[in-house]
Structure formats: structure tokens, C-alpha cells
Amino acid sequence: MILKTAVQDKLNYYLSLQERCMLDESQRSDFVRTELGYSGQQSFVEMVGDYGVILWDATLSAPYLGSAQFDVLLITGSKIIHYDIKNFKGQFRFAGGRLVSSYNRQYDNPKHQLERAHSILERLMQQSGYTGKVESYLVFINEHFHVSGALDDSWLMRGQLQEHFKRYKKSVVQEYQLEIGRLLMDYNQPFDHLNQPIRVPFSEVQPGVRCPECRRLVRIDFNGKIYHECEKCRESVKVTEMLRASLDELYYVKGEPFTYREAMEWCGHPSRSTLQRLLNQHFIKSGHTKGATYSLREKK
User: Of all residues in the chain, what percent carry a pLDDT higher than 90?
Assistant: First the structure.
């Protein structure tokens, strides 16, 4: 059971920019890293979904203890297990205490980050009166990752996960597990300002409605049509679904609430009543004049 899912505003920003503008090299690299990180975590969460309560992407902070980011926290049985997910690909080796790729790109030993996060989690739970066990593992989720050299017992390769999961039992989530999860959520204080995308000026981003199937920007005739057939992939999609997705992208691309006028121009001037209905259903309105703005409701 997923008690907390990952917030992926950064990834959604880059996905929303596709077909709308050109990214420079630093932005493309940041996009790839963000997408790989998310896909690796998503793959792992799907594997452990039936073993207990999951907090996906939490930043825990407590006075005098510090703070740390946790990719996946699994509450199963009477344990709390922390998994730090790495989606590296290729051949790696250890050299000088660092992880080095076949292209000689060097990474800090991820064991140090894992140990620091484990210490904070363990002390936080002790401070809260929790007497169960806390474990931490480093998971290399990509099946095409290979590393030479002695590995720590806390390191798990993709091929080891099936055997690792045998120690857990699939069972109905217990209330005490949910209580632990809610306790951890009380300490969740994400540092969003430290994980921002490399932005493109909003004025340089091309507006428009996108086909959700082929991801291409399309021209739509809004004259009472319920469905639109994409000229590129020939899929037929509800116009309201395309407009809803486009409004989401407007919010991510702008990075702040938008006005009704901006929404109308971004979507290519659809029906006023349809646009207003979508805004009322899926966005939170602030203000009551022409300067009113709309922000995206939290998705369940």
C-alpha cells in the first residue's frame, strides 16, 4: 500500500516542454537524470507494493538530527526498511573510494549517503519511541549495471531482489504499520527549492494542445466536436481530455498559477464554457476578478 507517492513536478516540467522548445545540453542531461531516477524508483515500488506500507520519496527532518532524502521506505512486519535506488547502467569499478564508470565518470561512494540517511532514520524512530528494527539497502535497479570489486552486504543488484523479497510476507496492512507511516509523514519536509529544473523562459515556450498518444502538438477544430482524430497517429481522443492535459502542462511550464486569459491562449481558444468547467473541476481558483489565478489540485 502506497501511503505517500512521489511528487514529480520536475519530471512533469521537462515532459511538458517536449515539442514546445529546444533544450540545451545541461537541460537535456538534467531531464535524462530525472527520468531515469523516477523510472528506477517506480520499477522498485511496483515490486514491493504488496509487502507493506510504502512512503515513496520522503525527506525526513527533525530538530538536532538533521534531514535526509529517502527514495523508498517500506514498513513491513515490525521493520522499517530504507531503499536508496540507483538506476546506473553499464560497467563500473571502485577506484580511490569512488565509483567509476567505463567512461571514467566518477561518482561519490553511495554508501556514505546511505549510512547518513540510515543514522538519521534510526535516531528519529528511537526518539519517537519506536523499538523495531531499521534496515537500509542500496539497490542498483538496472539489470544492465555491473560493478567489479568487493561489495557491501547492504548493496543489492537487480538479480538479487527476488531472493531478498522472500524474507517478507504479503499480508493485509496492519493499523500499527499505518501509524508508523503517518508518524514518518509528520517529519516529511521536502526541500523543493533544491530540486528545481533548469527552466526555459515562459515566453519562449510554444503553446498548444498535445495528442496524448503520440505527444505531438496538434491543431483542433473546437466547433462542437467531442473527439479529435490526430493527424499524426490517427488516434481519436476526447477533446476535453486533451484540454485537461494541456492545462496541466501550462501549470508545470509556467511554474506558478496562471490566469484564465493565459489558459485560453495556451489551449488555442476553445469553448469558454468547456474551459471554465475544466478549470473549476481540476484547479483551485484564487481571487475573484479578472486577475484571478488557477493552480493545479493535488492529484489523488
Answer: 69
pLDDT tens by residue, 210-235: 988 889 998 888 887 889 888 889 88
C-alpha cell at 3: 501511503
Nearest to 249 by CA among 11, 56, 3, 12: 12
Note whether 82 and 41 are within 8 A (CB): no
Determine the Cα–Cα distance for residues 57 and 75; give it in Å rounded to an integer. 14
Distance CA 244, CA 147 (A): 45
Q: What pLDDT is stored for residue 290 in this prediction?
A: 78
* Cβ-based burial of 106 (10 A; exposed 0-12, middle 13-18, buried ≥19): exposed
Nearest Cα neighbor of 35 from 14, 56, 57 is: 14
- Tally helices (H) and strands (E) across the chain: 8, 17
- CA–CA distances in Å: residue 221 to residues 212, 215, 264, 277: 17, 18, 14, 19
How far is residue 58's CA from residue 110's CA, in Å, rounded to a whole number? 18
Question: pLDDT exceeding 70 applies to what percent of the chain?
Answer: 99
- Report phi then psi at 34, rounded to 5: -65, -45
At 259 the three-state DSSP class reads: strand
Q: Residue with C-alpha cell 535526509?
A: 68
Torsion over CA: 230, 235, 240, 243 (sign): negative
Which secondary-structure segment (H or E) carries 176? helix 175-186
Q: How many CB atoms lie within 10 A of CB 202?
A: 14
Q: Residue 300: its pLDDT value, please?
A: 46
Lowest mean pLDDT of 39-43, 194-198, 250-254, 281-285, name the range: 194-198
DSSP annotation of 199 reads P
